[in-house]
Prior knowledge:
Layout: H1 3-21, H2 27-48, H3 59-66, H4 74-94, H5 106-121, H6 125-146, H7 165-176, H8 183-200, H9 207-227
Amino acid sequence: MNNDELLQSIDRIRAMMIDVATGGRPINDVNDGYRALYARVAASLGRKGIPNTLPYGDLWEWYGRWKNGDMSTYQSRREFVNRFIEPLLSVIRTGHAEPYLPTGWTRVDRVVGELRDWLASASTEEQFQAVGLFGREVLISVAQAVFVPERHPTEDGVPPSDTDANRMLSAYFTTELQGGNNEEIRSHARSALKLAVALQHRRTASFRDAAMCVEATTAVVNLVAILSGRRDPVP
């Protein structure tokens, strides 16, 4: 299945689960079709390296769950199904289960959106490698947004170029996370940056490589946004 077919199939699984649990068709009338569809979806998710979070491969298993007693209303059953369907759809569309919270830096947010969209549509090794190129642009953009040469001296004393995201962000984390109490956070930030940079340059790219690159790159953006005050609660 391509991504569009997979998304449609998962929506069909949702519809079938909700239908039998809300007074629709009897399970025996649709269970064979459901099980066959579930098997195709599970196989497609496996080929794409996406964890299968659909919990019920048989509608009778689903029946046993909703009859436990804590889903007495049709609405509670719909909500239960949507709680595991929507994150899976989001992973397929964007490579991430949670929505991206904008930083307010226009270029950074635009390129992060392109990064996530590209992952959602990628299917070949060359396209997965291209995700790394978008990841590099994200790091350059966020580094340019926060790096101040006078405030953030580099560890080796070499002035970074305008595209040297690694050196700029390393200097930024070192300065903004000074002190022994911040050692763990500083180490985490550097590790996230190192992983993002390494995955961007991986030549034999797969979906998993590209998805990890998106995750690591977005983590760096989120750390910078937090440190810069962009995620502080609004009074």
